[in-house]
Amino acid sequence: MVSNISSQDAELIDEYCHHLKHEMNRSDHTIRSYRSDVQGLASDLQTASAQAQDPVPVFREITLEELRGWLAQLTRHGIGRTTLARKSTSVRQFMAWLVRQGIRDDDPAARLVASKTASHLPDTLSKAQMRQALEGLKAKAVSTDGTQIDPLALRDLAMVEVLYSTGIRVAELEGLDIDDVDFSRAMIKVTGKGDKQRVVPLTNPAVDAIEQWLHRGRPQVVANNHQSPAVFLGSRGKRIGARQIREVVNAVLKDLGTTSASGVHVLRHTAATHLLDGGADLRSVQELLGHESLQTTQLYTHVSIDRLRQGYRQAHPRA
Fold first, then answer.
1. 34 catalytic, yes or no?
2. What's the rounded mean pLDDT across residues 140-165?
3. Tyr recombinase domain spans which residues (predicted)?
4. Contact in structure between 70 and 45 (CB atoms under 8 Å)
5. Phi, psi at residue 108, to the nearest 5°?
6. What Rg value do the Cα atoms of the chain yield, rounded?
7. pLDDT recorded at residue 255
8. In the beta sheet, which residues pair with residue 198?
9. 257 torsion bin: left (phi>0), alpha (psi -120 to 50), beta (else)
10. Active site (annotated) includes residue 300
11. Residue 309 catalytic?
């Protein structure tokens, strides 16, 4: 429990998180974010209203004016608009749950609105940059005559091929098990947000890279007496973590030397954009990425159109 939150408020937060996990089937990552946001609200209001007192409950008495003041204070402290929007959503959903539970008669957060987030197109790599990145990884993984291999470089190549092939999230790659790979159909089964499963196709290079890793690299990395079902392992032979995957991808992006893009989501954005550039149906891309809303997927059409516009201006003599 956060030290300056009342035990009553802490219990409500615990009950809400239990509801998110067992009734709403939210992911652990989502639950951690919601918990952090509502704990922050209780802590900040406690600091502002009861600095010299023992923690007092705030959720049962909080008003819309106090909630708006809280968001304004966060804004003054330099919190970004995207984070403010997320916190606002977390608080609205929590307060609505309090009303449904009969803990409150009114919902002060129903009209709580954070400032709109700025429109921002995601960073992507060009096809030439992706080709350069994959060729660089392959050169590190296997010697030119094919006799010498670097097992971890084989793993990195396979991970990047899968991320670019499918556009799956880092948590989905982390959770991928050997039994989830169907080599005969060139497909993988992934578990996404809310434990929802979907099947996505693999490119031939991705299938080849996974096979090379499993047959030539993974046996050299797996820990003694540790039978992990995971496809991808860390250097200690256990299932690789999200942090290690991010480090691998960031190193690949840095080695390119031609982009300021960073973060593992760049490969997800790139996969979606290249599919749409190639004429893929928007709903097919939505299903591939595991987006609940088509509106989320439509963001990539803006990236694709922006590239088309740039190419048009460069190529057309009167543009």
1. no
2. 91
3. 120-313
4. yes
5. -70, -15
6. 24
7. 92
8. 190
9. left
10. yes
11. no
Contact, 123 vs 261, CB < 8 A? yes
CA distance to 234, 307, 315, per residue, from 246 (Å): 12, 26, 37
Enter the tokens of residue 86.
């997320």
Of the residues 35, 92, 169, 274, which is catalytic? 169
Residue 265 annotated as catalytic: yes
Residue 169 bears catalytic tag: yes
Task: Report residue 57 as tokens.
Answer: 């409950």
Cα–Cα distance measured from residue 217 to residue 225, given in angstroms and rounded to the nearest whole number: 17
Question: Exposure string (b/e) for 184-211, b if CB count within 10 Å is 16 or more?
Answer: eeeebebbbbeeeeeebebeebbbebbe
Q: What is the pLDDT of residues 249-280, one digit of tens each?
A: 999 999 998 888 888 889 998 998 898 888 88
- The whole model's pTM is what? 0.66
Q: Which of 35, 155, 218, 268 is catalytic?
A: 268
Residue 297 pLDDT grade (very low, low, confident, very high; cuts 50, 70, 90): confident
Catalytic residue among 21, 189, 193, 246: 193
Query: Which tokens hold the place of 34?
Result: 């919601």
Label residue 304 by pLDDT band (50, 70, 90): low
18 is catalytic: no
